Amino acid sequence: IPVLVGDNAKALSLSKRLRDDGLMAVAIRPPTVPAGSARIRLSITMMHSNEDLEQAAEIIVGAAKAEGLL
After folding, report:
1. Beta carbons of 20 and 39 less than 8 angstroms apart
2. Helix locations, 1-70, DSSP H
């Protein structure tokens, strides 16, 4: 699942913040994606419970707010 960020430095910072909060979140930057479209890539599996996903959503929103993205 891509979470579009845009700026490379912000994508790296968000990725680190999410990892520090317990989520595996990889920053994808140029040349893998076009310039200006850096993003965080997340994956969901059948092993994730609804509670896992709700907790992850809260962490992602909180981290995005802390990074000034929301």
Report:
1. no
2. 8-20, 50-66
